[in-house]
Design goal:
There is one protein chain. By secondary structure, the protein is of the alpha/beta class. It has one domain: TIM Barrel, CATH 3.20.20. Helix content is 26%, strand content 15%. A 13-stranded mixed beta sheet has the order 1-13-12-11-2-3-4-5-6-7-10-9-8. Strand 2, helix 1 and strand 3 form a beta-alpha-beta unit. S-adenosylmethionine binds next to strand 4, strand 6 and helix 11.
Amino acid sequence: MSERVIALVDQRHPSWALPTPSTPLQLAQLPLDQLQRPLRDLRISVTDRCNFRCSYCMPKEVFDKDYAYLPHSALLSFEEITRTASLFAQRGVQKIRLTGGEPLLRKNLEILIAQLAALRTPEGLPLDLTLTTNGSLLARKAQSLKEAGLQRVTVSLDGLDDAVFRRMNDVDFPVSDVLAGIEAAQAAGMGPIKVNMVVKRGTNDHEIIPMARHFRGTGVVLRFIEYMDVGATNGWRMDEVLPSAQVIERLQAQWPLLALQAAAPGETAERWGYANAQGQHDPALGEIGVISSVTQAFCGDCNRARLSTEGRLYLCLFASQGYDLRPLLREQAASDAHIAATLDAIWRGRSDRYSQRRSELPPEQGSSPARRVEMSYIGG
Ligand code: SAM
Ligand code: SF4
Ligand code: SF4
């Protein structure tokens, strides 16, 4: 008796049909999207799992023991990720950020880091390789990550007060272990280290000044992120967003700050430097950043693409669908030239500008789509 095999298709993450690439690929011309934006920055999610349950990202009620995470066979292998990243580097990407879920939960991540650190742009330059982590495993891993070729790291930390931090990660994780992770990264010679704090009004905004005081003058760049309406599970409300302008006001009431120039085009953070007694920026005191994704849309020069852990390419953090590249890498065994041309065609068709659109709507309509992809799936 013959058995019928029924293919199971995971419809949680629907995807667009891939565009047919125009041939031959115009190698000399890097793609620009519909709004004339280049492709520069690729964020790669290496796992959809996390050991924290930050309420703004993976609320416990949704991401519980019954939540269906992706099976291991669905994840891109390190070889598949590296191949894809190298094709992205050919088509303009200069910066790669590993993220997740919690990227340090992916086994043997150092192997992937070594492979990515060996990639070069067409001009022969190494990529700017970094990683965003909740810091929980960093004390243990900082040295091996550095040895594998990771130069920089961004650590998420939402407060210094242990009770506040334990409540926000919602798994009772102590702040001291994350601080030890940051110190280990510094001791391993990574830098500059960035610390990201998501500010939720009424939850941790009283931690702004203590956090700034703690990191001022240490070489660590603290960045305050507006709480975003990303995903569809965090119950986002505008009144829980503390606008960056108010963060700066609070800081300026303590220490004089000067606006600094953006580090690179398309940079998400607005930079502010601590001033000395003469009113000039004092590099020894360092700088802070604010990321105003809600109150000041920066879609105009957004050059970021996101690759999910199972190989779907998303053109915006607020997208509801991506482009499934995995069949090209696996079943179809497509050539490098074909995949590169497909990436070009996808990027050339891009017109996403979610935050800008939201800011043009009245506040009550300002956040809508029901099926937006979760940040833990495509990474921050
Ligand atoms: N688990 C790692 C971590 O927390 O750093 C990497 C993945 S996490 C999704 C990446 C970044 O997204 C973190 O800095 C996190 O604070 C930020 N994030 C998650 N949900 C957010 C939200 N609703 N608004 C603003 N930032 C958010
Ligand atoms: Fe995990 Fe990072 Fe999301 Fe927090 S923000 S739940 S640490 S993936
Ligand atoms: Fe880029 Fe989308 Fe964010 Fe705009 S909303 S800055 S297009 S990721």
